[in-house]
Amino acid sequence: MKKVYLILLSMITIFIGCQSEINFQDPPEIIYGVDICDQCHMIISEASYASAYYTKDRNVRKFDDIGDMVLYHQINKELVEVFWIQSFDNEKWINANKAFFLDGFFITPMAHGIIAFSNEEKANSKASEVNLKVKSFEEILSIDIEKRQEELNTKNHKQH
After folding, report:
1. At a CB cut-off of 8 Å and minimum separation 6, what does 28 contact?
2. Do the domain assignments include residue 109?
3. How far, in Å, CA of 150 to CA of 99, rounded?
4. Against a cut of 0.70, is the pTM above it?
5. How confident is the model at residue 16 (pLDDT cuts 50, 70, 90)?
6. DSSP H or E segment with residue 139
């Protein structure tokens, strides 16, 4: 009987030791061409548009498009510890609250048209090129993505 307890205790110790602890200060890992977007269920393949977040209860959500991340968050209303995005210009992960966003008619994986920059100067330069205003993450989170997609679908349907 003592042997069974020792084996069980060893298995529990190994199991606990193998669980990776999430560090909210580090961005999640996305394996491009393999990982699936939590919103649209398509393969995440382009780093320039990828985003993710950690929930307070330590779940990771991954997305192929910033707009998909916003939409998923609006629908599911999860408590989020930190949002991460990859910068359009250099594909580096940054905390979304430190990013500079453009919301326009950019071609993105799910056609939400939102891109982000880690550098304010680069964001302002691109904004000037396309006549847009640089937005904060708070402004991006307030966009009614679902309504905007419905309007776009209606507009596209009428054109055909």
Report:
1. 52, 54, 60, 62, 84
2. yes
3. 27
4. yes
5. very low
6. helix 137-141
